[in-house]
Amino acid sequence: MTDRDRVVVSLDALQRDDWQQGEFFGGSDVSFGAMIGLSQLGLSYNIVQPGKSGCPFHNHHVEDEAFIILSGSGDYRFGDRRMKVKAGDVLGAPAGGPETAHQLINTGDAPLVYVALSTMAKTEICEYPDSGKFMAKTRVGAEMVKRFSFVGREDSAVDYWSGEPGA
Fold it and tell me: How much is the pTM?
């Protein structure tokens, strides 16, 4: 392996995963930050077909995200706003509450292609305002391997002492 192989990738050469979830969600994407030696900055290459979104409307409590639109066009839901975006636009999604919730939707007639960047927090809480869910997750080690992940709703909460021996 050469030094170049450790710090340079070609987006066109990356092996993307194709996926579909229901009628509205789907894409072709790959995470590649670790491939170029990054442990605290996440990078992914994403292609979303017309009429689809690559993720639910969500906000991060800890991580910041940004999106660089390489080609195509769509709508960027951000908080209570909806904005048209196109190739050359750079979108911010800072950490916060539902006011920073975000989602890219391909409303164009060609694939929406973008690079997503994110800080890589060891612990993160995400909220999903459309569905009332939340996600708690942790990562460990230099490779930021997922250690714990839970998706639920507040109404499924249990008492702090529930199930504890002798409680």
Answer: 0.90
